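Order emerges. As here.
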Amino acid sequence: QVQLVESGGGLVQAGGSLRLSCAASGSIASFNAMGWYRQAPGKQRELVATISRTGSFTYAASVKDRFTISRDNAKNTVFLQMNSLKPEDTAVYYCNAVRYFPTFNSWGQGTQVTVSS
């Protein structure tokens, strides 16, 4: 069972940058997609960005042009580069990996990102 561990969260001022990492305990090459989601207090978890095995991307409208998702299969790691951070980006960020067959869906424990105004 592959486990996901996020890192890189922290406190940053508005306009600053952070780079989140999601390290998998095994190979990520077989996953159909990996992504980042976030959950702010009192809100539902929402999609931030995903990257497919073939390299296609999806981004939430609120982060497009500010965030960049990437994956390094050799290092079994997915990254989320976050630039021009805003206070509304404050949330716990979760890494996710899915495979359609055999079915697999896993979440990391989350990393806190706090953006001060």
Notes: The mean pLDDT is 96. The chain has no helices and eleven strands.
